[in-house]
Amino acid sequence: MTDPTLPPTGTDPGTDPVRRLRVMAAAVRGAHVAEHVVQAPFEEVWPVMAALDFLPDFQRVHVVRADGDADGGRFEALARGRYGFRAHLRGFARPGWCWLQSRFLIVGLAAAPAPDPAATRIALTGGVRVPTRAAVVPFATRRELDVAAHRLAARVRAATPRPGG
User: pTM, whole model, 2 decimals?
Assistant: First the structure.
């Protein structure tokens, strides 16, 4: 049985991971999606993005379980925040797509190649979750998601070797 939170494989533009993240976030009251373009190919962006440590509130992330094959599957991680909070995140991850939830957090990431092959479209959503509800507290999430996107771009630049350097 296919998991409904995982985007189907294929090249149909309707299954684009960024579009899928927008749809998922639309079902979460108070969620905002920040979309940006990172000037690096998908193959360089996604590994940095999937590490999750570019997110401003995460100080350390430890992957507990990553079931599935190269196409992805169930994912579980322990995160420690810079203010001491701890989260046991569970969800699904595959190349270009990640949706995780804990009791108090929601994290959604998506990436897709841009029309320019040297760039990648990214989308981020998440925030403090209202337990037992499909809702996040919208306080400061827009700013935090934009900060996360800029941190991701900086980490990709730092991880990518440049010609002559």
Answer: 0.82
